[in-house]
């Protein structure tokens, strides 16, 4: 979020992911699924730098390990 080489809309979306994950009113599975959805949208942006896309994929992969039930 503090990388100036990343477009502003991507940084805003990353901040949204952070807020989603910190929302304790939802279950862990719901938070992870919501964050993965946002990250998927971000990773499809053609303006995203390659190193950022790789980082987003890594975070999404880690979130996919959160148990659903």
TrEMBL record:
- Domain of life according to the entry: Archaea
Any one Pfam family here would be UPF0147
Family of this protein = Belongs to the UPF0147 family.
Record-given protein name: UPF0147 protein Mhar_0223
Q: Identify the species of origin.
A: Methanothrix harundinacea (strain 6Ac)
């Amino acid at each position: 979020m503090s990388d100036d080489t990343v477009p502003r809309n991507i940084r805003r979306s990353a901040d949204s992911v952070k807020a989603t994950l910190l929302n304790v009113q939802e279950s862990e599975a719901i938070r992870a699924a919501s964050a993965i959805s946002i990250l998927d949208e971000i990773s499809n942006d053609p303006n995203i730098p390659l190193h950022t896309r790789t980082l987003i994929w890594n975070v999404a992969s880690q979130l996919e390990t959160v148990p659903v039930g």
